[in-house]
Design goal:
Number of domains: 1
Number of strands: 7
Helix content: 40-55%
Keywords: Acyltransferase, Lipid biosynthesis, Lipid metabolism, Phospholipid biosynthesis, Phospholipid metabolism, Transferase
Shape: globular
InterPro entries: AGP_acyltrans, Plipid/glycerol_acylTrfase
CATH class: Alpha Beta
Catalytic activity: a 1-acyl-sn-glycero-3-phosphate + an acyl-CoA = a 1,2-diacyl-sn-glycero-3-phosphate + CoA
Number of helices: 8
Structural class: alpha/beta
Radius of gyration: 18 Å
Order of helices and strands: HHEHEHEHEHEHEEH
CATH topology: Glycerol-3-phosphate (1)-acyltransferase
Largest sheet: 7 strands, mixed
Protein name: 1-acyl-sn-glycerol-3-phosphate acyltransferase
Oligomer: single chain
Strand content: 15-25%
Distance between the termini: 29 Å
Family: Belongs to the 1-acyl-sn-glycerol-3-phosphate acyltransferase family.
């Protein structure tokens, strides 16, 4: 019964936050800071409803000026709510083109200046990536990417796709890893007990001087650092 009530309230919240987000987007269309505002609209009430206690340790992320590539692990659709707490200013995201058909959220995503990519069309995907690279280097805007490319609630990060790293190297901007503890496997929407989630950002990784040949090693370096951080956070939660 509690699960049904909670899902109803989350659905209602999703619609209300979507309406407010679209209004924000219409008032200042394609402003890259819209995503941060909308992320808070979605994230703060939703994690309260889900009984998630967010512990954010993201000093390196907030200290980094706009104009970087932010990479994070992707566990579930609830990441929208969890990571909404820590989206920094002037940050946009790369998403599937099909997102634009999601009522309210799709329009909000588009008006927020986020990048929609048609993964089935190689030419259009390359054009979108070129535009994103210019955004990084010229518009003081950061790009948020989930380099695993799919949801993964397992214990081990899967091999990172290289697109985000190619963008960072080409634009010569740093990469900021953001790690989230494995909350998806512990999420109990049918209970009252509060679950703690740790979000921790790592020190920026410079890409200046690197070439496209360095991308595979760079991607693996980031994956290993994030895996180590997630494992460490899990150990801290187990001892709490």
């Amino acid at each position: 019964m509690l699960f049904i009530i909670r899902m109803f309230l989350l659905g209602l919240h999703f619609l209300l936050a979507g309406v407010l987000g679209v209004l924000v987007g219409l008032c200042r269309p394609f402003n890259p800071d819209n995503s941060r505002i909308c992320a808070r609209l979605y994230g703060l009430p939703a994690t309260w409803l889900m009984r998630l206690e967010i512990k954010a340790e993201v000093g390196p992320l907030f200290d980094q000026p706009p104009g970087c590539v932010i990479i994070a692990n992707h566990q579930s659709n609830y990441d929208l709510f969890v990571l909404g707490h820590v989206v920094p200013r002037r940050t946009v995201c790369i998403g599937k083109k099909s997102l634009k058909w999601v009522p309210l959220f799709g329009q909000l995503f588009w008006l927020g200046g986020n990048v929609l990519v048609d993964r089935g069309n190689a030419y259009q995907a390359r054009r979108a990536m070129q535009t994103t690279t210019r955004t990084l280097s010229e518009d003081d805007t950061s790009i948020w990417v989930f380099p695993e490319g799919t949801r993964n609630a397992g214990e081990h990060l899967i091999t990172f796709k290289k697109g985000a790293f190619h963008m960072a190297v080409e634009a010569g901007v740093p990469i900021v890893p953001v790690c989230v503890s494995r909350y998806a496997s512990r999420l109990k929407l049918n209970g009252w007990r509060r679950s703690k989630v740790i979000i921790r950002s790592l020190a920026p990784i410079a890409t200046s001087g690197l070439t496209q040949q360095d991308v595979p090693a760079l991607a693996e370096q980031c994956r290993l650092q994030m895996q180590h951080c997630i494992d460490r956070m899990e150990g801290e939660l187990a001892q709490a």
